[in-house]
Amino acid sequence: MTSVLERLGFDPGKLAFAGRTAIAACLALLLAWALGLHHPQWAAMSVWAASQPLRGQLLEKSLFRILGTLAGAAVGILLVQAYRVEPLLMVAGLALWVALCTATTNLLRGFVAYGAVLAGYSAAMVSLIDIGQPDHVLAIGADRVATVLTGVVVATLVGLLLAGRINPAAGLRADIRTLVADILTQLGVPGGASGTPRAALLERIAAIEEGLDPHAAGSLRSRQQVRSLRAVLISAVALLMQTGRPPASPNLSAAARALRNGQLDTAISHLDAVNLADPDQAAALSDLRDALARLETTEAAPTTRPEPPVVLHRDWLGAREAGLRALTALLLVGVFWQVSGWSSGNLMLLGLSVMISLFSTFESPVRMMRWVGIGQTTGVLGMLACRWLLWPHAGAEVQLILMMMPFVLLGAFVMAHHRTVPIAFDYNMVFLLTLQPHFPLTGSFGQSVMAGVGVVMAPMFAWVMYRFMFHARPERRAETLVRMTRQDLAAFAADPRALDNGRVWQARLYHRVLRLIRTSLRTGQGSEAAIRHGLDALRVWNAVRQLHAVLADPALPARERDTFTQALKRIERIEADPAPALDSVTQLSPRLQAR
């Protein structure tokens, strides 16, 4: 059976997951209707949104879906009250709220970010659906929360019964030990005669680091495991980014062999025996050794070794741009809706609140909007087929619910086929969003079409905003990383207490280099330019650290103090004009090293 499915283009593993999710969505739809909830289809939408293949991910995503929905529903109720005073006030309030949530999403990671973005468009769902019933806003908000809870509970129960129990962190630890062994082998070769090139090793580190966050879900222990894994990777970057090679050491090669054999304690013992004259290399190797020791730490076998600092890149510039983009887009569409009186304007505004926030964290939202538009169009076509081909034959409301289920089950096959997987999620969500299973049936075919048009226009307008306002693309994200690195160096140069937090600055620099490598690879430019930028940034960082240390000496001659102070001033302007700062570092390096 598996081979037949594969020949037809289906992924058996994905089909199993999507199939149980579709069945859970049907159960949630029926249960929400039986409970008398006004929008039972939202429960099925919550199942599609909350389901995850692993238990830890399922539990954490469900938690943040509930929290995000509660926050969004509360804001949505306030927005409906504003609508009763002045519709444009509601539009402005919604735009500000979604913009704030969008900016916050770009600063957070994992399912916490998902909860933030959900809080934004949940407010839109409460305030924009049933817009003509402001007197029932509390009931609408309560219905929204109840349907989401119904969907989350069903998804969680089905997931706990069927979701995988595997602990992917164990496999990650093995991969990282092998990676560190390759790094130590490369460092232990005399003169770099052989071994894996530094660029290839850094690319492997960046790829592993990017995939760590999902494995932190589900428990505090998982989160600590991922933090320890990331500490190893950051320490490995610090060792690889040193410009000089350490002298060949048999202990480095012996530690590499021990790591490949799974003998972590032996590897650490060999690393303890390595003596490096260069203080920066010695510090980097010490951090790597301490981070490896903490990998296997348990309550029964604690370690006294400190954890190297792990400071993650936060995209403050990207968050600001994403928030401004969301604010502008929602204000434009919201004002147009109110001025024109377009009956489906609320649905376009609702769809746009999702498109302009959820996809702002993607590497290339412009490319994604194409697939989103196709998926939503397919969902609208499914809605029209169900509403106008099947529902007219129903004699009771329960029959409307049952007639929706074949389309929901079809969504599993759409999600599991390699050609249709990019459109599957949007098909499932839009099909459910645009149907209202209430008996007797109301409305006309034209009204259904216009509602579908309003939904489909949202990704089209979002494409325009992503394309022409702060063009969201990998190249721009790479430019932002470079810019933020220079801002950090300038701030480090200007901070008189910089030496107190030097390791924090340095750890964040290494993490930005990893992000820049991954982003550069997506642009097709390779990692060489990113590594060169990282090496230049590290060279400037080391120079600033040395300048601060030298200037702290009260016996420093006035002439030299003036020279070094001017060098710091040039580095403070590195964002606007990097060339003089780099030239200054090059000229002063021999004098700083001599001191």
From TrEMBL:
Keywords: Membrane, Transmembrane, Transmembrane helix. GO terms for cellular component: plasma membrane. Signal peptide: none annotated. The chain crosses the membrane at residues 15-35, 63-82, 88-104, 111-132, 144-163, 371-390, 396-416, 445-466. GO terms for molecular function: transmembrane transporter activity. This is FUSC family protein.
